[in-house]
Design goal:
The chain is an alpha/beta fold. The chain is about 30% helix and about 25% strand. A hairpin with a 2-residue loop joins β24 and β25.
Length: about 575
Amino acid sequence: MPRKSKWTVPVPEVSLVTYTLGPAGASLGKHENELAYADADKPDTHFLTWGSFRLWSQRFAVGLIAAGLKPGDRVVTFTPNDVFYPVLYMGICMAGGRFSPANARFLPSELAYQLKVVGAKFVLASDENVAGAVEAAGIVGLGKESIFVFNDAPLEKDGGGADDVERGVRHWKHLLVSKEEGAKFVWDDLKGEAAKSTTSALVMSSGTTGLPKAVDISHYALVANNAQTDYVMNLDPNLATRELSSRNSRWLCCIPMYHGLGLVYFTQISALRRVPTYIMRQFDLNRMLDHIQRFKITELHLVPPILIGMTKHPRVRSGKYDISTVTKTFSCAAPLGPEPTRQYEALWPKGVMNVKQGLASSESACSTIGWDPTVEAVPGSVGELMPNCEMKLVDDDGVEVPQGQPGEIWVRSPNVMSQYWENPKATAESLTKDGWLVTGDVATVDANGYYYVVDRKKEMIKVKGVQVAPAELEAILLDHPKVLDAAVIGIKKGEDEAPRAYIVPDPSTTLTDREVMEYMDGKVSTIKKLTGGIVFTDVIPKAPSGKILRRILREKAAKESKTSKL
């Protein structure tokens, strides 16, 4: 029988905006003028209160509608973290649009793929990404009038910000109406079935196989996730109410907000709980440690490479950085082993720090497994079922496995995605008719109901917590004139994964790994480079259907004592 969470919480059938900020015109009470978001490098001048955050979002929503945004239109953001990033999300939702964040490090070809998949109406690109956005838009036939320069200039001076005259792109200040007009705007509460049928976000994901797809996440699914997370956080008596959370918490956003974990925690849950949040534009370990010390951060939300980096930092190990105010650490996006967990916890006096892991995905928007904050987490375990979630572990035939045996995770909960956007085939492969999400993650569960992720059936590779689709890299490799066939898998590289390519070269030519690396350099972002090596082979193992047998390649990689040089 499937396991069910011991917790059940009600899920309001309203828009994400109304659930987070209340109905339009509602008082924010004493939180009105309290700190919401601040630029960690410029906190004294570049910040938003909860009142100004809501007003900026309203101003942006009205501007989008005036510019021609219709209900359901998609808006892609192509920017690193910014104090205005939460405004982008909330404003697009207020306007009835669908928010679609792009990786800020995408090359133009990668961005163009996303623009095409979601059918973008508008693109907001940071200063350094405008050129790439223009090139990507040109590839898919999107006009320059749909692209806007995005930065924090309007915060420095209302109405501030310069158009990019050279490229013919306007500044997003043209999408911001006056304070007076914005304050009058009333967004749709999306009550009842409308909350379930209306998309809030289209987030790119590799799913379990194939090229990246757009995950269709409804307002209701995000409200469900946030209600479930809020309930569990409230189990901590020191954070049991919004008032206590606002007073006793200070968060630091050091991970990308275009990533699922950063998006949910720092544009939604932080806002729901009124937690003051300091935003880093780009990750830098030394600056992160400076910010922890300066702002007396209480809780960290990290991916394993950052956590491991902290344990190895000499000034952290020697106690020269004061991290004593941090009493909670949440690690997600990739598995974290027991030993790195213990090493991290040892940076604090015994009994102070207990790392809580979780299991999340874009398709489950985002958390299905986590930890009761009053329970000591078991190193290596991702925890127990979150509220409202039910789960079963199955074998290759879809039959449940006995307790303690590994099986693929199938989950059913109100926060599961609606579909893969305009991709019924991929949707049918990942969502069963009775509502189970087929995750591709393989886990075991013990007698206490604690889950341990042990493997992945899915093809995707996770590099620094970010999904990389093998099919995408294979398609690029196959375009090389000297490559007859190719397959990409993920291999272990320390505590992380790295893409490795197996290539069948044209025997009538000479192909070197350096030539392949140089070819890939201009076509993929850093996270997708073949840092796991390149191996030339005579044949790629495939099933009769033509599907690559990656299991055989993974077994081959495990036996190889050395790889080709990079």
